[in-house]
Amino acid sequence: MSTSKPGGPPDGLPEPDSDEIRQMFSNRETREAYRFLYERRSGPLPTMGEWVAEAESVLGKANVHTQRRLRDVRDYFIVSTRKVGSDWVYQLEGRKTDAAADAGAKISPRLQAEVFTVKGRFCAMCGRGPADGVRLQIDHIIPRSWGGETTVENLEPLCVAHNHGKQAFFESLNPYADAITRAIKLETPWERIGELLIAMREIGNRVPAELLPIVGLESHKGDPARRLRDLRVVLGWAIRVYKRREGRATVVEYELIEAKPWPPEGPKEAVNRYERERKRRKAAQRCGDDR
């Protein structure tokens, strides 16, 4: 929590029309998002839907970027979320003590060099690099707006074309950003995918299949469909699958019907035990067939 400054408001937060806020947020929509949170910080706490309606009223427009602006306030301020009834509400609580260092998440030349050294001087998506006449950019694997950090582990080289394509794709997923943020920092892929299913059910949405590898964080070494199977078969979750045709593409979505408590030993060990027992039964069956 912040402490008040002499002559400032009781909670130490800058006034929405102050020069400090204008310096922090060059985008007017983000400044209006801060104003909205500031004016409602003592209650009633606002929902995302109320912010979208406010943006339409004040700015005459609202789109997927409008939802992101409310979260952009977190670059400098602590904004908490919690569930009240069937809605998630937002509360402006104070300043971030590390906001100056964190704002913009600048990737220093040293960190860029470390990323290139550890992960190579080629695009993580297409494999091309400077030798092919391609310029590389360092990109956050998990966007900062979804809880990603500016660390070597969460950075990768991308060519300009794929970096722009990825940004456009992730922008299309911004309506699900709150659910992704809730899930993405959990320890195991089963917990991350499970929490995503829970969060999406709470807001009345199904989970698009393309969110699973993003939240599972296993795009190069894991199988999100298998993690779903583990949730259903091993851990007893009830998950419904929906498929429909859109042009030549098949759209796949998942809906959580019932979640089960996580096993005391954790989902990873529960799944490993299930696989050991399955292999033992299969080996015993082969031995029986050979007799």
From TrEMBL:
This is HNH endonuclease. Transmembrane segments: none annotated. The keyword Nuclease applies. It holds the Pfam family HNH. Keywords: Endonuclease, Hydrolase, Nuclease. Residues 110-164 form the HNH nuclease domain. Residues 266-277 have a biased composition (Basic and acidic residues). Residues 1-20, 261-291 are annotated as: Disordered.
